[in-house]
UniProtKB/TrEMBL annotation:
It catalyses: D-erythrose 4-phosphate + phosphoenolpyruvate + H2O = 7-phospho-2-dehydro-3-deoxy-D-arabino-heptonate + phosphate. Stereospecific condensation of phosphoenolpyruvate (PEP) and D-erythrose-4-phosphate (E4P) giving rise to 3-deoxy-D-arabino-heptulosonate-7-phosphate (DAHP). Pathway: Metabolic intermediate biosynthesis; chorismate biosynthesis; chorismate from D-erythrose 4-phosphate and phosphoenolpyruvate: step 1/7. This is Phospho-2-dehydro-3-deoxyheptonate aldolase. Belongs to the class-I DAHP synthase family. Pfam families: DAHP_synth_1. InterPro entries: Aldolase_TIM (IPR013785), DAHP1/KDSA (IPR006218), DAHP_synth_1 (IPR006219). GO terms for biological process: amino acid biosynthetic process; aromatic amino acid family biosynthetic process. Keywords: Amino-acid biosynthesis, Aromatic amino acid biosynthesis, Transferase.
Amino acid sequence: MSLAIPASTDSVRDRHIAEIRPLVSPALLRDELPLSDDAARVVTTGRDEVTDILDGRDDRLLVVVGPCSVHDPDAALTYARRLAELAQSVGTELRIVMRVYFEKPRTTLGWKGLINDPELDGSFQVNKGLRLARKLLLDILDLGLPVGCEFLDPITPQYISDTVSWGSIGARTAQSQVHRQLSSGLSMPIGIKNGTDGDVQVAVDAVAAAGSSHVFTGITDGGLAAILRTTGNPDCHVVLRGSSAGPNYDAATIATTMDLLRSAGLPARAIVDASHGNSGKDHRRQPVVAGELAERLAGGEQGLVGVMLESFLVEGRQNVVAGEELRYGQSITDACMSWESTESTLRTLADAVARRRGAAAG
């Protein structure tokens, strides 16, 4: 008979962990970079107005527009200044929220966003990334412009969610229980995308789940592990983003989506993402998609409450090459529309809302 030899603690723990570094606590970061009273008003007003659009109390169109991802806070702020000015001129028809994404879900490997790797060099200075992200969000709020973020890491919201007026759960995480639970406790409306395979039912199920109460583990403001109980988020909604099989922004798919939502006892409303599968990943098609949606909006199509656009200062995208300077204002992830195309597209959407109002007034 052989005797079992007890394994030492070191032999069974952290076998694949190369390094553990301390993470700044949410409370400390918010103390370093506090939300001003004026900025808080921008956040809460943005949330309330988005909710009113979702619930049909506001007939404006929600437009979430901005870079695919933020890699250069300075360029993102330059974009924000232009967008804030444009948002004022079309504010009667559109509620513009700037897309400010710091986390990138990857199909396999790749840069995971400003928070994870702010230096773009694999140094993974996460604490610096969190500080840069929060500082940029505060700077944009100071312009009077509400922001929208995708939430990927379940810890990240504790650091930035107080600055966010609209949130997103992406196609790769819509089926994740962790992200459905997270959405149920977030303080802003959350758009949940259909699956990468085009399955809209996944998003409908996620909206239903996120609207319910959940109990799960998370962290406190002080960074301590905790058990959280949520009340459920009634402001979650479907985002149609197409798939590898093709677009899904056609009137028939939107009507089917409304039927699925009603069958689940949920509000019949959806946003269309004009990029990704709906543009065939061709940034030049985004204005075409938006133009088609504008005509349908002007004609009184029901259920469509918002549009998402990927846009930056310079159209297209670029690769990060060591030793080479990046082109200012151009995406390093998905290709984006140019600023000029963005301005034209937003005015087209604003005109559609005005035409719809005129038709309704008779």
